[in-house]
Amino acid sequence: EAQLDRFLFNVVVDYLPEDDEVAVVKRTTSAKPQAIDAVFTGEEVLGLQELVRQVPIAEDVVRYAVQIAGASRPGQSQTPDFITNWISWGAGLRAAQAMVIGAKARALWHGRAHVTPEDIRQLALPVLRHRILINYRAEAEGITVDKIVGRLLETVKGP
After folding, report:
1. Would you place residue 14 in the very low, low, confident or very high pLDDT band (cuts 50, 70, 90)?
2. What is the dihedral of CA 91, 110, 107, 118, to 10 degrees?
3. 123, 98 contact by CB (below 8 A)
4. Global pTM exceeds 0.90
5. Burial, 68: exposed, middle or buried (Cβ in 10 Å; 0-12, 13-18, 19+)?
6. Which residues does 105 contact at the CB level (< 8 Å), separation at least 6?
7. Are the C-beta atoms of 149 and 91 separated by less than 8 Å?
8. Are the CB atoms for 156 and 67 separated by under 8 Å?
9. What is the Cα–Cα distance from 13 to 158, expressed in whole angstroms?
10. How far is CA 79 from the centre of its chain?
11. Which of 10, 83, 121, 143 is the right S-S partner for 138, CB 3.0 to 4.6 Å?
């Protein structure tokens, strides 16, 4: 689990519908693959990373990300009861960092030069999904990490 924390997001990509899968299999087994053209240079990627880091974010929005991550930790003063009941291990510092950097990139993607609380909310699940370890009680009750993150977002009030 500790090594998973080093991944920025955990994005669930489901299986393709059968017709789409058939099309992909046909396309990839019928002809020689085409050469892949570079979309960005390494230097351009580094420039984009620097641009993302420069996106302004208000302290109360940073605090919101920190509060969401902190509320996922059992045994803390700000921990909701459902976390104590269902979680063995909560998100660490990297979770808040990932929410903030992801929210900055999302803001740019949406044509904004600042981060909103909604950006943080939208990044919470892919950031926390692999950073929260549920316990046996949660598993027995059919509680998933996705459900817990949803409930955290209902519980932790943003700015």
Report:
1. confident
2. -50
3. yes
4. no
5. buried
6. 52, 55
7. no
8. yes
9. 28
10. 20
11. 143
Helix ranges (DSSP H) in 1-144: 18-30, 42-53, 59-71, 81-86, 93-109, 117-128, 136-140
Instruction: Judge whether 127 and 9 are in contact, CB under 8 Å.
Output: yes
3-state secondary structure (DSSP) of residue 127: helix
Answer yes or no: are the C-beta atoms of 154 and 124 closer than 8 Å: no
Cα 49 from Cα 46, distance rounded (Å): 5
Query: What are 103-153's pLDDT values in tens digits?
Result: 999 999 999 999 999 999 999 999 999 889 999 999 999 999 999 999 999
pLDDT single digits (tens) 57-68: 999 999 999 999
8 pLDDT above the threshold of 80: no
Interval 57-102: pLDDT, tens:
999 999 999 999 999 999 888 799 999 999 999 999 999 999 999 9
Please report how the helices 117-128 and 93-109 are oriented relative to each other, as an axis angle in degrees rounded to 10. 130
